[in-house]
Design brief:
The complex is a heterotrimer. By secondary structure, chain A is mainly α. Chain A has one domain. Helix content of chain A is 71%, strand content 2%. The radius of gyration of chain A is 19 Å and the shape is globular. By secondary structure, chain B is mainly α. Chain B has 15 helices and four strands. Chain B has a two-stranded antiparallel sheet with strand order 1-4. In chain B, strands 2-3 form a two-stranded antiparallel sheet. In chain B, helix 2 crosses helix 12. Chain C is α/β, with parallel strands linked by helices. Chain C contains ten helices and ten strands. Chain C is globular, with a radius of gyration of 19 Å. The C terminus of chain C is likely disordered. The chains are: A mainly alpha, B mainly alpha, C alpha/beta. Chains in contact: A-B, B-C.
């Protein structure tokens, strides 16, 4: 039953899905770290650009490069609007209030997308014409390799951004201690706005990458958000490396469990992992020790 | 003055009681009576949420799952073992409560944000099990043929008769919560919410009270589920999806977190508003609903209960301008009397 | 007189910094012991160690002859040790009276069933702690504000409320972390009288305090910390003339010494 080629194919597919989860979890973790919110609309951060890219590519027949650039441009705008309407008026309020506000945003985006784009699942054409390519003897869809490569590039980019640029340092300072950052003359509100835009762009990239291999529907954000939550917890809530490793881990484990244990319960495994992590190592793989007391 | 106020209060309760008893004959429409029954059931589930979110300040995004556990417990016990309504009434809330403890134990030592995410996972797992464990739960077909409650010669099979049964349960649930809120337990819950360390150093075991609150919350959910199963006579997994958990939270936020009356009003409003919005197509209504939630959070963070409170205060201040200064002072009761005597 | 609190070789490291360094002291039943020292000398850390908020790196803490290590704070409370905080940590949503009633939590037993059905035992218990809480508010002078939300109290009264909440259960040892901080002179002298009244009830007081007038006036003995080390111990008159202490406080507090 067990053969190496199937195993390798499953592994690459799992890594590709995991890379998407990692990107979304990264978006989720960034906002958690920067402003302490749990963004329940993170799935819609993927669904909206997914639809935009599909419409640009199929209905409007825009060339790939332009379609992707326009989508990402719109996501910059989307992130800014999201920050101004859903978060900014509620800054400083209890986290439950902001959380419910993002739930409201998620409902709004899901249903307006349903009204705008219809209920039919859409698929965007891929960049690649070949169905599969041989990769060390394993046949995988090139889009999967692109997804994994994009994650690697983004991780390097983000490392350089946070560690080597002044903007990155300002973002870190703001996340760590907002009042102190303000005293140091960092324009905290602008930095938070930039963080939202960056989180939105991460969603945009995920949406663009996912659209050719996954049906784009108004409801797709929901499952994606749930996987991102599971990834974040597994990796350690608010940990950047944790979000990446957690996402990859969930993606791979989920696929193997679906293939070798039960396809029906495919979606359960992510949450079984989540509960198991909470039981055994509640702070996640990379989380700091959780202070029990004040 | 005091006598007048007292008799006014009695009059108010009397009028409320008459309206509540006469409601089925006033409404008449079977459809709207059914909606009222549903509002009562939701109110009980939301009251449960109020214990966790309102009193201890934790977020449970799995109330629909506990609601479902209560409903399936009742459905299975009734259809497989022939347990009547009154027997499942005693079984369903503890069953849901036990699941609550099971989820609470590993997660309630962590910060509230972990709990929020863990409860989502739990809700999804429960829902998928209800969906896929066909031999036990009937899968997507659900479990039909649940018996209506019977009490002696009375059978609560119509919406109107079930209304009285549901109302009795709601009143008992609300009164029980009022008792809890004003007891050592309720004070411990609120102490943990306000300042965990100070609570511990006052002798309150914070973790224990979080678990108790969580168990109570899920038991309320279980009670709502049990009533639901015996009212609709049919349960299936779709009903108990995470959407409902979120709706329950919205009901509580709109009514006013921490307020018992707010929980009931919020649940009733959000049961009826979608019905009134029926002329709008489904997605339109939901999109507007989503926007409304954001607006609510921004402009009415304390819900209708908070709004009412501030309006009452403003009116009181206008009627009695000196009253404003006395806002921090006792307004009634034994202690106030000694203070005024000075 | 019996010893109520015994500290032996207590040490606490935070990373590479030693906050409390091999401190030993013992407090007799019924005394008022003050812990003083310049800012950052480890006073609050010591209090946090005694009350179980931090775990020590090394050393022993015996309360009534029993080790307090590895006991959750709420268990220490049951054994008769209560404390207040440097910045009042009240339950701001509860009323003044309810805050005090939470302090009596350990003395009530009512379970869910009894509460929901208002069993006689629960009712009685509730009445009893209600009266006790009222008495305590009278004792500290806050009874007129019993029904006000705790958050509406001015700062000085919040500190008093915290003392009331801690004292109401009749602890044998009361730990006070800078009780006079933020109080005006009249509130401070009110506090001094209150502390003496508390001592007269038989409660031992162990307090960290900056206000030297208060410390010198009411303490039976004083322990001085500097850089985490205990540098002097003795009655107020002795401490005032101790050269090591004068040195530690030099400049800033020399006039008291």
């Amino acid at each position: 039953m067990f053969d190496v080629t199937t195993f390798a194919q499953l592994f690459v597919t799992g890594l590709a899905m995991g890379s998407i989860y990692a990107l979304v979890a990264l978006s989720f973790a960034l906002l958690y770290k920067a402003v302490g919110i749990l963004n329940f609309a993170v799935g819609e951060f993927v669904m909206v650009p997914g639809f935009i890219s599909v419409v640009l590519l199929t209905t409007l027949k825009v060339p790939f490069l332009w379609a992707y650039l326009v989508t990402l441009g719109l996501m910059v705008f989307f992130g800014a609007v999201f920050q101004r309407t859903v978060y900014h008026p509620l800054r400083g309020r209890p986290f439950v209030t902001v959380l419910v506000s993002t739930i409201g945003a998620s409902l709004f985006l899901r249903n307006t997308s349903l009204l705008t784009f219809g209920a039919d699942p859409r698929v965007s054409p891929g960049l690649f014409t070949a169905k599969t390519v041989s990769f060390f003897g394993v046949f995988v869809p090139p889009q999967y390799l692109l997804i994994i490569a994009t994650l690697i590039v983004l991780v390097v980019f983000q490392y350089l951004l946070f560690e080597k640029t002044l903007l990155g340092k300002k973002m870190q300072a703001t996340a760590q201690d907002r009042d102190m950052a303000r005293l140091l003359g960092i324009p905290v509100d602008t930095i938070i706005l930039i963080t939202f835009i960056y989180a939105s762009l991460l969603g945009g990239i995920s949406g663009i990458l996912l659209a050719p291999v996954f049906y784009v529907t108004a409801d797709m954000g929901f499952m994606i958000a749930l996987k991102a939550f599971a990834s974040s917890i597994a990796g350690g809530l608010g940990s950047i490396p944790g979000a990446i490793v957690g996402g990859l881990f969930i993606g791979v484990v989920e696929l193997f469990c679906a293939a070798y244990i039960s396809a029906t319960y495919k979606d359960v495994f992510a949450f079984v992992i989540l509960i198991a992590v909470l039981l055994l190592r509640p702070q996640g793989f990379f989380g700091e020790k959780i202070a029990e007391k004040a | 003055m005091r006598v007048k106020r007292f008799s006014l209060r009695i009059l108010f309760y009397l009028a409320a009681a008459i309206v509540l008893v006469a409601l089925p004959s006033l409404v008449r429409s079977n459809y709207w009576l059914g909606t009222i029954d549903l509002a009562i059931i939701y109110s009980i589930a939301v009251l449960g949420l109020n214990i966790v979110l309102g009193l201890t300040g934790q977020l449970n995004i799995a109330q629909a799952a506990f609601w479902g556990i209560g409903a399936y417990t009742a459905a299975l016990l009734n259809t497989r073992l022939g347990w009547p309504f009154w027997a499942t009434l005693l079984a369903a809330p503890p069953m849901a409560g036990a699941f609550g403890v099971m989820l609470g134990f590993p997660t309630l030592r962590l910060s509230g944000r972990y709990l929020a995410l863990a409860t989502i996972g739990f809700g999804i797992i429960i829902n998928l099990i209800l969906h896929n464990w066909k031999e036990f739960t009937g899968g997507a077909d659900g479990i039909p043929g649940i018996a209506s409650p019977v009490l002696g010669p009375f059978k609560f099979s119509t919406n109107a008769s079930f209304y009285y049964l549901g109302l009795a349960c709601l009143i008992i649930a609300a009164l029980a919560q009022l008792k809890i809120k004003n007891s050592r337990m309720g004070r411990a819950f609120q102490a943990v919410k306000e300042n965990e360390l100070a609570a511990e150093l006052s002798g309150v075991n914070a973790f224990k009270y979080r678990v108790i609150a969580f168990a109570l919350c899920s038991a309320y959910g279980g009670l709502a589920g049990q009533l639901f199963a015996h009212r609709t006579k049919f349960v299936s997994a779709e009903t108990f999806f995470i959407d409902m958990s979120i709706l329950f939270i919205c009901m509580l936020m709109i009514g006013g977190v921490g307020s018992i009356a707010g929980a009931i009003v919020g649940a009733s409003l959000l049961t009826f508003i979608p019905e009134w919005l029926r002329f709008l197509q489904g997605p339109w209504a939901m999109a507007i609903f989503g926007l409304a939630i954001i607006f609510m959070m921004v402009f009415m963070p304390d819900g209708l209960a908070g709004l009412t409170r501030s309006i009452v205060q403003r009116i009181a201040a206008r009627i009695n301008p000196d009253g404003q200064e006395a806002a921090g002072r006792p307004s009634s009761g034994r202690i106030g009397a000694t203070g005024e005597g000075k | 007189m019996k010893t109520i609190l015994e500290i032996q070789g207590l040490t606490k490291w935070f990373g590479g910094l030693v906050a409390v360094d091999n401190v030993s002291l013992s407090i007799r039943e019924g005394e008022i012991r003050a812990l003083i020292g310049p800012n950052g000398s480890g006073k609050s850390t010591l209090l946090n160690l005694v009350s179980g908020v931090y775990a020590p790196t090394d050393g022993r803490i015996l309360f009534k002859g029993q080790s307090v290590l590895n006991k959750r704070p709420h268990l220490l409370v049951e054994e008769g040790m209560k404390r207040t905080f440097q910045n009042a940590r009240l339950f701001s949503g509860l009323t003044v009276l309810q805050n005090v009633m939470v302090g009596l939590h350990g003395q009530t037993r009512g379970g869910l069933f009894g509460i929901v059905f208002s069993l006689p035992g629960v009712k009685e218990e509730e009445k009893l702690i209600f009266c006790k809480a009222e008495e305590m508010l009278e004792f500290v002078g806050l009874h007129e504000l019993a029904n006000a939300p705790a958050k509406n109290l001015p700062y000085g009264q919040q500190r008093l409320l915290e003392v009331a909440r801690a004292l109401v259960s009749g602890p044998d040892l009361l730990l006070l972390d800078e009780p006079a901080a933020g109080m005006n002179p009249s509130e401070t002298s009110q506090l001094m009288r209150l502390l003496e009244k508390i001592r007269n009830r038989g409660t031992t007081i162990f307090l960290v305090e900056h206000d030297m007038n208060l410390v010198m006036e009411i303490s039976d003995s004083i322990t001085v910390l500097n850089f985490g080390k205990s540098i002097a111990q003795g009655p107020p008159a002795e401490i005032q003339n101790n050269e090591g202490v004068i040195e530690a406080y030099l400049g800033k507090r020399a006039r008291y010494a």
